[in-house]
Amino acid sequence: MAASFNRSGPSDLETSSVNDQSVSSRSSNRSVRVAEKERRKNEAEDPVVLALKYFNDVEAGTPVNGNDEVEKQLVLVEKVGYSRGLSPDAISVMLEFAMSLRMGTTLCPRVLKCLIPATTVPQEAVVRAVVWLGVGKIPATTQVLFVKWVLTVFDMIDEKDQLRAIYGFIFNFVTDENLCPFICHLLYLLTRKESVRVFRVRKLLELQSKLGRQPFLLHLLSLYKVFCPELVTLSIPSRMRSGFKNHTSPWKSALLFVQKRNGSQVSSNVSLAVTVKDKTSTRKRKHHHLELPKLSSVVNKPAQTETSSSRKLVPLTQLHSFAQLLENMHRIELPSQMGSLLGSSMALHYLDCVQDESALLRLNFWLGYSLHEEFLFCSDGGASQYSEEVLQFLNRLLSTQHFLQEGFSSSEAFLYKFLTVWDGALYRPEILGLLSNIPVIPSSQIGRLLFEPLMQLFFTSSLFFKCGLIECLNNMLLKWLTWHSVYALEDDLDISLHSHTSINMTLSGFKDSVMELVLFVGRLASVGLQLEGCHSVLLSFVLDFYETACDTFLKYGLPLVLLPPSGVFYPALLASDPVSVDRLAYIMYRYKANLTSAKNQEKVTEQAFHISRQTFREFNSYIAVMANYLWNSRVFHPGMGVQLEKELLLKSNVPEYWTSFDLIHHPAFMSYAIDFHRKCWPGRKDMDLNSIKLSKPWGWYLEYLFTQGFDGLKLFFQGNVRQQKAQGDGQGDSTPTQAR
Amino acid sequence: MERHHNSVTKTPLDRVQRRSKSKSYRQSLRSCLGATCLTPALTTRRLNISRRAPKSHNITEKVNPEQLALMVKTEWQLSYVTPLYQFRHTQLKSYSRQLSAFIAAEKQQGLAVEVEGSHGSFRVSFSVVQGMSEAADDAETVLIQIHLKRLFSRQDEPAKVVWSGLLTCINGSPDYLRSLPKDFTCLPLLCSSGAEGLTSAVKSWFQQTFDCYFGQLEISHTSLQWMIALWTNCQTESAIQFLKMIWTLPVVPPLKVTYTVNGQDAWELWSSVRKDPQKEGNGEDEDENSIDIEEVMRFMQGLKSHFYRHFRLDLSAGKLDQVSTALGSAKCSGMIKISNSKYMISTLTLLTECALLKMPI
């Protein structure tokens, strides 16, 4: 609404005089009082003030014809009006003059046309003028002109309470044939819930039967329907889409000019139009069940509503800005169809606060119905075809869930059924997106509901799907963990098994579910990597997952540490791209941080969770393997994860096979070693990579690698290997530190 | 019946608790699903595998004969309906007015219509069908009729009924019904008959007023087989006269088979596949009359093998499209006609069950 007018800024009438005064102010020690007096005096001499005084005081019945005085004064006012706009007082005076017909009807339109407000329009003036409309003998065209003027400056009227108070009075003018369209528009702007009454509805319907389908009647009635759907009903045809006609032509340009000149922020309601339906919804849709319901107010109110409190409820449809939403937060009436909330971003803000279980259930019924009808019950095979509309629907659902940061239970229930019939290709990104939003599933059910169908899909689908699924499961894990960290914090849960058990899910129940998920991904990834020949893209997604999984304790406060299976560990360690090895090193570094921190906590608090020996043993053996492979050149050493018969290794004719996966000979790092060799010994013709292995160049080589961006390796090295150097076990190379 | 409740329908309600974010190690309502409470999807909902044999109900004594006559003579198109929000059986008068006004407004696009008052040619009436509900949890059945007043009809001429609809719930799963909050009324089955346009107008009014949604309810292959068995089982009490089945076989061009069996013959086959009631008769009396899915399947197998013997055509490859007896007829597209009011309840029980299976949550 028009709010930011500037009272302190002197009206245009005053500015000239004040400026004069400030220039001519001779003595600075004048009292304010005297200055005020002077100002008034100057004002009194201002021609415009004089003109207004004239119009204010002119006696009724003064002739117009041949009256030079009136002509002179009016021209003056017009000049100011068209150039700078009139002050609120000036508008009051001129409006009163025109509408009271003190000098007959001829001047009236001329005066109205120059009523361009500089800042605001005083409400009293408008109210008085409306009263004149009732008593005076104003010609029809002038009456129309006046109402048009009110419509134009509506947003600049300073207050509207008194105008609303005379709603009934204004309403009476609808019977006037000429005024009717404009009065309807004015009423549309003024209508509040309490203004909608049965007798008014009847009157309008009576007019409708007389005048036929008139858009202005229809739009007013449709607003009535928004407030009181129990009184009136109608359905607006799509072609009657436009709102009220723009009645502002006589003032529009002048107003814009004045506003521009004054730099005023006041916006007039020039482009008020009712949007009845958006274009897309008028198109005949193939899938009706995917249409979002229209936001409309409730007809069918609970029995006890007809109390005074319910009168104050604000339908959500009537809120157009976030500020309004906040203002009315406590008395918002939910729409008749909850599904319509998904259609507006503002409604979603409200949905986030809705506590009413029935309301959410309604939403879930609608959503579940739509999804089931589209994907599961369709008899015409509609769902097996790709359609833009379905895509839009799913994306809206996704963005809603993203906004609310949780999934809907009906979409979850739908997914469990849909996964069993899904081909893994139809709307893949969207379905996987929805899937990643599902909340924690109890570990007893997770296998049947999720893992079985997903496993089938995973092993029968392309590499692309495999990557997508791993990514989806990573997101799922992330959301579960985030959820845990938020709620565990809110409940002030200390990290222990003994602390309070929740209503819905205990900490250990949650832990079990997360464990199931991580182990499941481990199984998928191991077999998947094998199937796809350790494809580096798939490996990258798998490592993404483990980057989440390795930090469950430190980052999310979940007392659980689960290591990757060897089916993931070795492919990453022996990968041909250095990035994977580096990321594995980083992951192992984080695992160590988590394990040590858990260990420390175990020492401090008695209640701390217990990490099994097995986990530590496994971790230590991984660390040992990494150190032995990358640093110590002890590949296929007996007692390590991967063992090969000595004869077999000899048969392979690989010279010094035990070095083949150290940082020099590792396929991922060989090129770095060669590069380093060149830089280190530029003159040397024959390349002997083994010379890097010597103590000094080896240190340099590591430094060189770390400068190449292998931070994971660096962290891993610093955390696990270097401190051992001091102990020096005689060979000059390093042994891993072990977590205990 | 209770003992055989195989279709466990867990519902949202036993999961929802008041949400207070400040003190909850749990998920919010929108997505709540935890260890102690399962979503419906977590439990499989299936059709009952055993049901009580239809007893002839003395429904004629309980239900208004006029309403009963309407229900019996009409062929209904079936739909399922999600639970109705804020539906009150006490407000039917006001619903009648609102729906009349809504239809009038739909008919004359762009003309507003007052809700109170008369609305031209269509008049809607809502009424409760007393005496239909069987179980305590069932909501009362509601009958909706749309009358058309002819413009030049005589004053005393009664308005013609052009559309009727029956919203009903007979022996609905108590677990499901009890789980819904008080604000919801579950009448999952809509039987409608009349012009398509009016059906969709009524549906959209219900959607806008009670935030409920309608979907097509087909009668599945298994349900049709159930109907055959249930009807045949009535032979001794009231003759089914004939048992007619229409099958479609997937050959090119599709082969349509109409297979009619004499009522008495069907009954004899049926009694031969029935389990010996004496064997299990030591249980409660109620169970004596229950029918198992195995019996139904045996019966169907008997019918099919008989057909095969004569025509060398195995019907199990085909699809059962339609069944009819003197007691009623049912089509897989979701059309049903109940010709004998005595067995209406058992048929509607089966259909209510089918409709509840379609509930999204």
Automatic annotation (TrEMBL), chain A:
InterPro entries: CENP-I. Keywords: Centromere, Chromosome, Nucleus. The keyword Methyltransferase does not apply. Residues 16-32 have a biased composition (Low complexity). Its main location: nucleus. It holds the Pfam family CENP-I. One of its GO terms (cellular component) is inner kinetochore. It comes from the Eukaryota. It is found in: Chromosome, Centromere; Nucleus. Belongs to the CENP-I/CTF3 family. This is Centromere protein I isoform X1. It comes from Xyrichtys novacula (Pearly razorfish). The lineage of its organism: Eukaryota, Metazoa, Chordata, Craniata, Vertebrata.
From TrEMBL, chain B:
It is found in: Chromosome, Centromere; Nucleus. Belongs to the CENP-L/IML3 family. Keywords: Centromere, Chromosome, Nucleus. Signal peptide: none annotated. One of its GO terms (cellular component) is nucleus. This is Centromere protein L. Residues 1-25 are annotated as: Disordered. The keyword Cytoplasm does not apply. Its main location: nucleus. It comes from the Eukaryota.
